[in-house]
């Protein structure tokens, strides 16, 4: 079986690794000219943990994990609001959780598949014909190739989805936020593993990565969905956060390489069916849980394993149907959870900010952390073919 994966992010590379584990190989094309190292700190939870274990990569991921202890939140002026310990959440899920930078996930997956996979950077799909017995694909290099299956793992603005399923706007569900993230040098350690600052309609903060750098994450209410040009992004952030104190002021004073950073609308993708003929969607191209859920990378890893295991056991149409039926109910629930979380992550009022400052430390304390983790976490999936 000849399989084309479009997109060399975590979903696409995880699928390439999962296919290899099941005795199949794939061609992977990626529009970027080199490995994409952009992103922010992400949580790997039970389904990502289990998928990484099956891929034989769990130890490699955990070796690159970011050590997190206390998270402290402050007002824009630097007044302490509340704090909590990440260890309480880890205990609540029986230890099956760790934080890792997205570029570290990318590096581990690339090391696992890079020298054994036909990986073509600077290459896109410009046209495709979805036939009953295969897919003819025209590549930006000018060549035309035929594949048994094409997998669109090319992000929430997926070109493959637009070609085969319909206009981008048809499936877009904006949540009313924008976010930005990048890495920066850190000359002096932070006071806590994570220092966040919060105000009405805004949140910004820094994670200490442990290698002399910090990872930033900024989020604010904004209903627009168009792209912001790289040269305008620093100005946008200064307009929103420019009066905030240290460490946000430090982050905003550091030049940003937006080729390695993230700046985009926060939106979910809702596609009635994840497959069309011999084309199937994976990861953000199919669902996009957003970082608010904390489950995006874990679900991409789990989805990659499930799709590969189904393709190894069944004809493509049955495999696509089983993949979607096994994964979509959980995805739908987590999308709903993500929408609810947004209102807490970025408070809408001074009252909401005060209530959050009172309730979050309590909910994240030892007696209640298990309840909160169950409410926010995805259920454990059966990853192998029943």
Provide an overview of this structure:
By secondary structure, this protein is an alpha/beta fold. The protein has a domain at 3-66 and 100-173 and 267-344: 3-Layer(bba) Sandwich (FAD/NAD(P)-binding domain). The protein is 38% helix and 26% strand. α1 (10-21) runs parallel beside α5 (102-113).
Set out the fold topology:
Layout: E1 3-6, H1 10-21, E2 26-30, E3 41-44, H2 46-55, H3 58-63, E4 70-74, E5 80-85, H4 86-92, E6 98-101, H5 102-113, E7 118-121, E8 125-131, E9 134-139, E10 144-147, E11 149-152, H6 159-164, H7 168-171, E12 172-181, E13 183-185, E14 194-199, E15 202-208, E16 213-221, H8 230-241, H9 248-252, E17 262-269, E18 275-276, E19 279-281, H10 296-313, H11 316-345, H12 350-363, H13 366-376
Parallel strand pairs: 1-2, 1-11, 2-7, 4-14, 11-19
Antiparallel strand pairs: 3-6, 4-5, 8-9, 9-10, 12-16, 12-17, 13-16, 14-15, 15-16, 18-19
How would you summarize what this structure contains?
This is NAD(P)-binding protein. The protein has 13 helices and 19 strands. By secondary structure, the chain is of the alpha/beta class.
Relevant terms:
single chain; 386 residues; alpha/beta; FAD/NAD(P)-binding domain; six-stranded mixed β-sheet; 13 helices; 19 strands; 38% helix; 26% strand; globular; FAD_aromatic-hydroxylase
Based on the structure, what is the oligomeric state of the protein chains? single chain
CATH class of the domain at 3-66 and 100-173 and 267-344: Alpha Beta
**Major sheet: size, sense and barrel closure?**
8 strands, mixed
CATH architecture classification name of the domain at 3-66 and 100-173 and 267-344 = 3-Layer(bba) Sandwich
What is the alpha-carbon Rg in Å? 21 Å
- The separation of the N and C termini measures 22 Å
Given helix and strand content, the structural type is: alpha/beta
Count of separate DSSP helical elements = 13
- The fourth-level CATH homologous superfamily of the domain at 3-66 and 100-173 and 267-344 is FAD/NAD(P)-binding domain
What is the overall silhouette?
globular
What fraction of the residues are assigned to beta strands by DSSP? 25-35%
The number of strands is: 19
CATH topology of the domain at 3-66 and 100-173 and 267-344: FAD/NAD(P)-binding domain
